[in-house]
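User: Fold this; tokens only.

Assistant: Input:
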Amino acid sequence: MGVIEETDVEQVTLALLDAANDRDPVVQEQVRKSILTLGNQQPDKVLSMCQDYLLKHPKLVVGHRVVVLQTIELVVKSRIDDISYPKIKSVIQLASDEMTKSKEVVPEWQQAASNILVAVGNKYINDIMEEILGKFQPGVLPHFFVIQTLANLSDSNVYGMVPFLSAIMGTMLPMLGMTKQDNMKWVFSSALCRFSESILEYLANLDKAPDPTVRKDTFSSEIYSAYDILFNSWIQSRESKLRLTVAEALGSMSHLMAHDKLEEQLPKLLPTILGLYKKNSEHYIISKSLYQVLEASVNMGSRVLETQIDGLLVALHQQICSPMDFNNPPTVKNHNEVLRCFTILANTFTDRLMVFVLQRLENSNERNRMGSLAVLRHLINSSTSIMETKRLLILASIRQPLADHSNKVKKRVVQVISAMAHHGYLELEGGDLLVRFIIQHCALPDTYHRPPDPEEVTNEALRSMCDNTLHLFTTTVGRLTDVLWPMLLCYLTPNQYANATTPLCKSLILLANKKQTAQEPNFIIDFNAQGSFLYRCIGVILQQCYNKELVRKQLQEMLIGTRHNDAIERTGVAMGIGLCASSHLDGTLEKLEEFGKSDAFRKASGIFGLLKDKNDVDVEKMKSTLILCYGYVALHAPEDKLLTRIDSDILHNISKNFNTKVKQSVLFIECFCTFQHIESWLSSGQDHERERAVKTTAELLQFYLDNLSVKNLVTFHNLAALVGRLAPRCTDPNPEVRRAAIDCVYRLMYIQLRYEGFSLDYKDDSVEGLLDVREKLSNPDHSVLYKTCSELTKIISKRLPQQQLSTLLFMLYDGLVDSQSNCSRASSVILNTLLKNRGAGLQDLVPEMLEVLHSRLQVIGEEQVKVAIGQSILILATQHLQTVVNTLVAYPLPYDSWSCEMWIALGADSTLALQIMEMMIEKLNVMVPFVDKKESMLRPGLTKVTTSQPLAMTCALREMMLNGQSAEAVAHLFPKLFSALLVRLGSSVGVQLPKDLNNICVSLCCVLRVAVEALRILLGRAQLDAVVKPLDQDGAWDKMKDPQQHTTGVTLLSRAMAKHAGPRLPAIVESLCPSLCNIYECQRITVTAFFSELLNHHVVTELMILDMLMNNMMERITDTCGTVRMLAVRGLGNIAVGSPEKVNKYAKELLAAMSSGMEEKDDPGKLITLEAMSGMSKILLYLDQKNVHLLVENDEIRCASIMLLGNLSKFGSGEPVFKDQIHNVLVSLLLHLSDPNPQVVKACKYAMRICAPVIGSEQISAMFQKHLLEEKGLHYGEFINDLTKYLVWSKSFLYYKNMRLVMLLQDPDPLVRVKAAEAMGHFH
């Protein structure tokens, strides 16, 4: 593009400047770019034109002005080096004037001007400071944007600004104490933060700084003085934005404070910062500030910090456990800042931090564990040298999360394992468990039911993550090569890793190629030592083989070719044959039976003979192999086929080869299979069948215990399942069953002890206590049975491993529907005792347990068991309140009767009910009550549709309050509950259910109905029957549910509360006040209607809440909603009825409000006008003489009153009373025709023209219509003379005229008195 001529530049630039305020932002942006293009060629010329444009158009709209200023900034930034110095000076002057022209803060305009100064300040800092400091004088609060500009300059030009900062802060400090407005406090705090950051950057780069002699202590005194005000005063502000900015400033300032001062302040500063987490929903700034304070403290070697470490760790852990929302960047930033805090603490308090984190890792709460794992991963990656000595401790502690059921937790575990792999953890003892964890999850099945939670980690996602992690181990972590090779080969054959075959093979190929290329000696694997592996491989292959003859042949070779003396190989062949049986059960059993009868026990041959020892095979070892094979066949065989073959083909053949050396291999299989046969008889309806089943089980367990030999510590996996089936029988109606059931539990406990490594003759005191329990069970008394049952549970709880607790609980849930009511009650007693003692670690299972309880409620007829289920829910809620509430709230609406029972149960504990209600009140106050949706493409407009959670919580509160035990909680929270439900009532007006609920029992779940019912139940539970009775009589509840009569219903409610519940009103009013500023009109309408009626009653004066109500009503006069304005006017008028003695106190405000109401333009039905007229008539009855002058002095009131008179004549022109009133006021109107306020004169002209027909004189009427036109001038003297001639002929007027003029001679306004005297002269 060529150089444009100067005149062309002017024309084009001017045209562009005119177009700069285009409605389309795209056009605006293009205009800016085009002017920048011109400015790049002729910067001085374009800048001059922009300046002239602003000066010639002083009344430009703000948006247009902003675009021009932004364009100047762009040109300055682009060509700062090419702009002449005089032009720079004029630009500085222009920007400074534009920035401070308006004393009010107009952010967009003033920010644009400020940005120009910052852009210029990057080169001409001295000139900028000369201009800015001229508007930053001691003792005078500067303009908001003067401070903002100084802050931004310190950001953009550190080396230029820092030399000025000492003087700036010296001038600023006295201003801090003068500052009262929050916005000024905010900008000062923000500036101090930026100043501190600039100083720190300057000090960190002294080698580049213009003055390398600057030191931190240069600023310490000023910084501490500012700190004193910010910390002791401003951080207590109610304004959240200000609190956060102050906190941010304190964090930056802490680095510049003198060490002794910071040390002195830490015990107060740290708890204050931590306390901000509870007061603010935005946490990133708080965590950032906390990190800076911690860093400053650690850097100076603080001793006080150690006393704060416990509180710090707890608070930081709570933060790290808060979920991150990647669509909400501040939550991600907060997460990272909190991790930085842990890092800084790890450098000084390594041991305490590690103990804290690893202890928290033991907590099975999902969120808790995820947070702990995040910290652990971060520390492994960021603090390598510090963590070096902790590696074995971490390896031991990570085992617990490996067993977690949550995929979210597993995802974090995988991330931790990946970090550990890169830092040498997996080569240590125990590292193989972590590799196995990754491979296990490479084999995860698909998620068939998609989780409703979008943040849930699906099996597919976790599997893909583990696939990638294994690949990374193989390709990028070189040190793991010898760990993974040949370990990964061992995972190819077990069935549970079948789905992981593809990633395993990919990794093995990569490892093999790497080994082969490097010619490493361990590339060659000696499979003679890997016989077990080969047999398992063969088993997997035979699973997929459909040639039965080939399968038989290979089984034969495997059995004959095994080195039976080698325990590993013997196990390998048994596993391989077991795997084969999963597809070929019949053929495998036939081959095993054939092998058992053959002479192979004496002679062995075949292709696998190469792997045998040359010594004679021990026949006993061969029998062990055969029995082991049967065991693995039973393990892998299809369940539907196994039961028909277990006796005849498996146990029968085992028994033939059974001897004391091999019995342990089959003992459990035999016992377990037998129990499966008799299990169904345990709950038979026939006494003799139950007795035989339980006694047989007792004998079976005794047999197992007598023959049990445990060499290594292992887990008795079936303990919980067996106890869950047998323990409820301890209260069976049949005493023989009871005693036998105790014997079963007694023997199960000792079997568990044997598995734990205790000797055969060991006696446990708690288990021996079961013998005493057994004796007590002879007593059939119910109370004795249940007490005994509780003792039994304590013993079970003590011995049961934590990982089996969930199994036992779910078995007991089945027991709740036992055919014997005694046993179902026992199940509930055991269940609740276990939950009390050990339920705290079951958070992940809570939703599932609640769902089971919900389903059991539907089939349980026994009332006592239902009550016990309620107790179960209460216990779970005591331990996992948030999870229980979240789960129950999410149940489908409308709640079925069983869901309602669960909520009612939660009302039984007053402490718990209090917590739940507080939680729900808090959420109801912040949740979106409805959304606007387009109902149909064919119908215009939007429909309000309720959101599910607030509706569900309202339903929940309703049900909880039905429980009489909730009365204490209701009494404590009554003001908050009443306020929340009243606001919820307002939120429900005209709101519909979602389409998926519209056809489901609408009458039960109508949005308004639920809120009304909850409110009515609340009043009843709070023992306010005196309030409920008149509401019932007046049909108030139905009115509240009717959108057309809603405010009438709320008015009746307010009236009843004022008359019968006065003492409760102050707290209610205080709770309701914030809702008047809500964005939802419906809520403001409801609350305003409630307040409006309260002002009708003297009780508000007695309770000293009149001022609060009046202030709120005055604020609502300007509400955007007409109905709210109407109700506010009504409320202000009601003061004359409720508290007439206070009318004169508020006379000025009341009269102004009524006049505003009477002049209301946006009032289609004239409802506001009518309320204002009604209110004015009430107020005037009580107005003192000293306040009457307000009617005269206030031009607005005079205008409104006169206009009102004219409008009223439209309604009352035929009434004698109205005619009398017109005669009374006519003189006043005539006098006001000469009022100094032109608006009053116009109002008089209008009123007199409208009222003229009422006077009764055609001549006067015609005269008014001709001369009293609003926009036409009036010669007052001539008009009065002409009018007098007509009036003197009207006898009816003489009386009114004389009386009125005499009264006006007493008027406080001298002008009125003069005009009255003048008029009397005309008339007489």
